[in-house]
């Protein structure tokens, strides 16, 4: 009896080890967290001045799954402390960030993706910027294009060497939410990598929308949106990197004046750089200029960011930094006399 019991235990352990090995081959778990201690030194809203505290601004938990030989899947959750993510009780909430299936090599050099996945707009530029822990890229920050959309993607190489790549997508244009109308968004991007260290992307999208009625002349007019963007980046290994991102957006009949509706034109420019001061220290800086409507005066904003990245370990950064947001036209409230929003932070970021 004792011998039979020992044999049974052996087979259970063997099966458990085999299952664990099989699961390891099929599943890869990873994550990202960043947050900070912040202090509002100045703010155009007097109620926000001197506000300080600890916060998590992003938590990812990701499962990458080997479904079959030619099929991979990703499921990612996101948590942060923004109003959109919090629960009804005001506590940290969880939402689905990614949920997609990838058909690898659907034809030579190309993959197809179906589901909730990144949009082409700034996925490449965000990876090159490398400091999402400090701030979103300019189109993401100003809500020009969502980082996610539910639809179908096709992406891959145009040249065998990968010096010219492409990415096209058709999506609901509803971000992480459900579709509520018949209109879609069409995305296209070309990536150029002609020499080591340098890359450029040319991006364009068309977002179809329902017509709007102009109250001035009572006629129905198109309300579609167009976005074009250019990204340039050069990186010298781990020594330094510089980048530029610029975009323009046009919304047909999206601007209401005293007369008939007019097209609303938006522009933005972003310049950033980082340089290694030592093996575990980097100096990071960025400047953004954003104009939500080029036909309106005094509505521009600028953003200035600077920080010192201390790499405490390979996947751990501690970054003292400061961010200054300055509107061209300042509207002070609640007794403030500040001309800009100045926030000092110590940001903690790590991956696993």
Please explain how this structure is put together:
It contains 3 helices and 18 strands. A hairpin with a 6-residue loop joins strand 13 (240-255) and strand 14. It has a 16-stranded antiparallel beta barrel. A two-stranded antiparallel ribbon has the order 10-11. The protein has one domain (27-351): Porin, CATH 2.40.160.10. The chain is mainly beta and 352 residues long. Mean pLDDT is 92; it is low at 1-21.
Q: What is the gist of this entry?
A:
The chain has 352 residues and is mainly beta.
Defining key terms:
352 residues, mainly beta, Porin, 16-stranded antiparallel barrel, two-stranded antiparallel ribbon, 3 helices, disordered N terminus
How many strands, which pairing sense, and closed or not: the largest β-sheet? Answer: 16 strands, antiparallel, barrel
State the helix count.
Answer: 3
The averaged pLDDT comes out at: 92
Strand fraction equals: over 45%
Helical amount: 10-25%
Q: Give me the CATH fold name.
A: Porin
What low-confidence regions span 5 or more consecutive residues with pLDDT below 50? 1-21
Number of strands: 18
* Ends apart, CA distance between termini: 46 Å
Listing every helix as H and every strand as E from the N terminus to the C terminus, the arrangement reads HEEEEEHHEEEEEEEEEEEEE
Counting structural domains, the number is 1
CATH class: Mainly Beta
What would you say the CATH architecture is? Answer: Beta Barrel
Overall radius of gyration: 24 Å
Shape: globular
Strand order of the largest sheet: 1-2-3-4-5-6-7-8-9-12-13-14-15-16-17-18
Overall structural class, as computed from helix and strand content, comes to mainly beta
| CATH H level, superfamily name | Porin
């Amino acid at each position: 009896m004792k011998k039979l019991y020992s044999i049974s235990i052996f087979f259970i352990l063997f099966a458990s080890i085999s299952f664990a090995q099989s699961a390891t081959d099929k599943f890869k778990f990873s994550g990202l967290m960043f947050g900070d201690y912040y202090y509002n030194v100045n703010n155009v809203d007097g109620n926000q001045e001197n506000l300080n505290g600890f916060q998590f601004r992003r938590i990812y938990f990701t499962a990458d799954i080997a479904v079959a030989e030619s099929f991979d899947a990703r499921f990612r959750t996101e948590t942060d402390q923004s109003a959109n993510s919090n629960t009804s009780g005001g506590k940290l909430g969880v939402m689905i960030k990614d949920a997609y299936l990838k058909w690898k090599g659907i034809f030579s050099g190309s993959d197809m993706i179906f589901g909730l996945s990144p949009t082409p707009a700034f996925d490449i530029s965000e990876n090159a910027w490398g400091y999402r822990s400090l701030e979103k890229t300019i189109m993401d920050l100003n809500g020009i294009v969502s980082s996610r959309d539910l639809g179908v993607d096709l992406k891959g190489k145009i040249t065998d060497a990968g010096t010219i790549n492409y990415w096209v997508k058709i999506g609901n244009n509803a971000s992480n939410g459900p579709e509520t109308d018949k209109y879609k968004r069409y995305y296209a991007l070309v990536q150029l990598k002609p020499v080591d260290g340098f890359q450029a992307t040319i991006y364009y999208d068309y977002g179809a929308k329902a017509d709007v009625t102009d109250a001035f002349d009572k006629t129905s007019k198109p309300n579609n949106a167009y976005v074009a963007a250019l990204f340039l980046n050069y990186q010298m290994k781990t020594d330094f990197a510089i980048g530029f991102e610029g975009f323009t957006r046009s919304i047909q009949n999206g601007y209401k004046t005293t007369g008939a509706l007019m097209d609303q034109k938006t522009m933005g420019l972003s310049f950033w750089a980082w340089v290694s001061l030592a093996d575990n220290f980097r100096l990071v800086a960025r400047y953004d200029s954003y104009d939500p409507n080029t036909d309106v005066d005094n509505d521009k904003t600028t953003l200035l960011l600077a920080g010192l990245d201390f790499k405490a370990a390979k996947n751990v950064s501690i970054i003292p930094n400061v961010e200054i947001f300055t509107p061209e036209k300042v509207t002070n409230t609640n007794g403030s006399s500040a001309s800009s929003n100045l926030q000092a932070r110590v940001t903690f970021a790590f991956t696993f």
